[in-house]
Amino acid sequence: MGSHATIGEDGSVAVPDDVRRALGLKAGDRVEFTVSDRGRVEIRRVKQPFDRLAGLLSDYARPVSDEDRARLIGEAIGRKGRE
User: Fold this and answer.
1) How does DSSP classify residue 7?
2) DSSP state of 35
């Protein structure tokens, strides 16, 4: 059996915890509702443009150590000072 929720006076519905977890939803996320011919409703998370970009770049991302991060920031600051 699925989760249950109550529709508020203003039409709002609180998405149950288990559904939010399953969809990876958090406060401020946008969702899309699709209604089938049979009256079934599908809810899905609407990815924001940054989410799409992060997904594309994830294949190229690599962890950066704190030491490397500090070195790179220092180099960037040094370049900025010489401009």
Assistant:
1) B
2) E
Digit-coded pLDDT (tens) for 10-58: 999 999 999 999 988 988 888 999 999 999 999 988 876 666 566 666 6
Residue 30 bridge partners (DSSP): 46
CA angle 66, 67, 72 (to 5 degrees): 95
> Collapsing DSSP states into helix, strand and coil, what is residue 63?
coil
Query: Residue ranges per domain, the chain?
Result: 17-82
- Name the nearest CA neighbour of 46 among 63, 28, 64: 28
Closest Cα to residue 33, out of 43, 46, 23?
A: 43
Task: Answer yes or no: pTM beyond 0.70.
Answer: no
